[in-house]
Amino acid sequence: MDKKIAIVTGGNSGLGLATAKKFCEKGIRTYILGRNREKTEQACAEIGPNAVPVIMDLTHFERIPAMVDDIFKKEGQIDILVNNAGINMKKDFVEVTDAEFEEVMRTNVSSVFAISREVVKKMKQSNGGSIINISSMAAQYGMPKVIAYSASKTAIEGMTRAMAVELAEHGIRVNCIAPGFIKTKMTAKALDSDLERKAKVFSRTPMGKMGMPEDIADAVYFFASDASKFATGTVLPIDGGNSIGF
């Protein structure tokens, strides 16, 4: 790829970190957004000079335009946006409060809209780009005790299609990846505390194993590169067959 500039939200750990590493290895200058300064700066130091830390809480919507403007002024372009940042909450449906539901939606949906809107303004000025949203198996089928997370990721898939149709004429492609169960600290925490759910995950995954963060990074890079230049509005499960397993 020629000179490319990327933004990866939630890029200091898990799937975001693997994606940022992949981009930087491919020569893409990558701005890693994270709320925790120490973790974000440490991730960039680990990756190398192509990684640039940006300390940012995306739920502070009013700060997003200036942050995007700053990157655009420095680089003259923004080619790739990976909307990876998100939070989860495992709780019985009737125990979820309005505030808890709103917090998940604010982080997982509203912030994706807010940063995408600002980045799209810049992409229109620099001949297009690629936006990759991260969904989840929770949007592919019903899962108990994650009502807010399921609602948020289902919204992301709808946003992906709507954005793709509206932005195609501007040379902006929008695609989505729906990761299955991937070996991360977040997944380990969720499954190790619920052995019944863990057994169910493996029983319905035809490949019989969990994926690695690098598997998601490879798929994100595909959508970021010209290898997928005729793909937009798609939702791609990377899940070892979990979403179609019996």
From TrEMBL:
Protein name as catalogued:
SDR family oxidoreductase
Species this chain originates from: Flagellimonas hadalis
Q: Which family does it belong to?
A: Belongs to the short-chain dehydrogenases/reductases (SDR) family.
Q: Which GO terms describe its molecular function?
A: oxidoreductase activity, acting on the CH-OH group of donors, NAD or NADP as acceptor
NCBIfam families recorded: PRK07231.1 (NF005559), PRK12826.1-2 (NF009466)
The record's section on InterPro entries has: NAD(P)-bd_dom_sf, Sc_DH/Rdtase_CS, SDR_fam
Q: Which PANTHER family match?
A: 3-OXOACYL-[ACYL-CARRIER-PROTEIN] REDUCTASE FABG (PTHR42760:SF115), SHORT-CHAIN DEHYDROGENASES/REDUCTASES FAMILY MEMBER (PTHR42760)
Phylogenetic classification of the source organism: Bacteria, Pseudomonadati, Bacteroidota, Flavobacteriia, Flavobacteriales
Which keywords accompany this UniProt record?
Oxidoreductase
